[in-house]
Each structure stands twice: as C-alpha cells, then as structure tokens.
Task: structure prediction
Amino acid sequence: MKAIRIHSFGEAEALSYEELPTPDPGPGQVLVRLEAAGVNFIEIYQRRGWYQRPLPFTPGSEGAGVVEAVGEGVTGVRVGDRVASQGFAGSYAEMAVAPADKLVPVPEALDTKDAAAAMLQGMTAHYLATSTFPLHPGHRCLIHAAAGGVGLLLCQFARRRGAIVYGTTSTPEKAERAREAGAHEVILYTETDFAPEVRRLTEGKGVSVVYDSVGKTTFQGSLDALQPRGMLVLFGQASGPVPPVDLQILNQKGSLFVTRPSLNHYVADRKELTDRAAAVLEGVAGGTLKLAIEGSWPLERAGDAHRALESRQTSGKLLLVP
Result:
C-alpha cells in the first residue's frame, strides 16, 4: 500500500510518499481501507517534533472507510462496514488499523468523506463546549481561530447552548464565515488587539471562557480577556508552545483557571466515544451541524495540505484522499 512516512522532524518536505506492507489486524484490531483522512494541527506538531513520536512513523489518526479485515476476537464489526475513527495507527495511508473499540459506524445518510472530516474536530468542539467548560445560556465565550475547522463547529455548539459567542479571525471573509456559524461578534486580530476589544464589547466584564487553539501569540491576551474566576482552555498551539507561566499571575488576574485538554481523555470510555461521535455524525447527517470542507489533496500531496494549514489562510477542514 501507499503511505506517508516521516523519517526526521522538520518542515513539510519531511513527509515522504512511500510503498509499505499492508498491516495485518492483530487481536482486537480492524483493518480499514481508507476513503479519506483528516489533516489536523496535531500532525504538524508531530512532524515538527513538538509532540515527540518514535521515528519513522506514519502520521494521522483520523479517517473513515470500509472494513477490509478483522482481527481475532473482534465482534460487532464486519468486513464491508463503513466506519470512522480518530484512533487509527497512521491514517495518512491507503489502509490503516485501529482498535475495534475506537471505531464508530458511519450513519447511512452520511458520506464517508464527511465522516472523516467530522470526527476529530467535531468531537473536539463537542467536548470543549459540553464537558471542559459546559456552556449554558448567558455564558460569554471567546473562540480563537473561529473560522478554522474546530472554530466553525465550536461556534455552532456554543450558540446552540445559548452562549454569547465572540470570535477572532484574520480576514473579513473569515469573519463572515464565523458569523454564519453562530458568532455574535468577530474581532479581526490583524487590525485590533483582541483583549481590549473583548473588554469593550463586554462592558469591562470579560468572558467566562476562552477557547484557545493558537497558543504562544494569544495566551497572554486570552488571560486578559477573562472575567474573574474565568477559564482559559488551551487546546492547541498553532503559533508555537506557550512558555512556562508563573501561576501567581492567575491569582493577580482574578483567580483564573487554565486547562490543557486533549480529545483522547474525553473519549477514553467507549460510551463517551459513541455518544460524542453520534452527536457529531448524526448532526452532520441531519443538517443541524454544518461541516465546512476547505479542500482535498491526493495522499501524495500531504506536504501541500500541511503548508495550506500552516499558512492559516484556510477555513474549515482539510482532507487527504488516497
């Protein structure tokens, strides 16, 4: 089979398109012929070496396709089933294995590529809005990169839960997409310092929670935008890792909370995984959750997909199609 491999950490050129043996599913595992794989910032962090993985490796964890083979002891999944997962062992490939308990069925009404696009970012937006900081009517939230893949979905979940939604984007075009997804107000961070603007828009109160996937360049401003006892949810580092923080700052700025969650800790339980996946996939299939796919690249052009995502000029989801 064809797959992408990383032999050394570095820029997008580190993504190598190669021929590899097709993996065999072990006990409890399933082999899936992938129809699409999601491209996410976590693979960029891994490619750069910010998130260390043993070399060489095939990046990617998100995808969807058709079951090709099942390993010993697998029940409930059959050859020919359409499935999706964020738990593949290298989804930048024509075929990949995943534990059977990390797979979820793709609803009949949903295109397989849409399922691949929705899993990681959709469930991330879901856990952020419903579990990490459960939004309720009257909460004020700030969503950075509001026109990105997670941002557009998070705007929808936040608005649906009755929150007052503020977003940041880089361009007027992205701002319009964020408004269409549910943002009440959008701040162009390329023109306006977002923290003072949030204070102005909230009449000096600040927001209940900041959902920050940008990291280094927004972290300090995100703290400044919070109300006393507010929470900064740092779930990414698109601009780079956040330097060490003096925790006394949290006291000085109003007994603030900071958390650094990841999806795996919010889908570790099988029921939690299936419930979150169903909320996302059935929402997309039924039209109550709008999915924005920015573009698709052939698998061999994974480097171009990474460059597009790193440029931060894209809006919505990026896919690789074997």
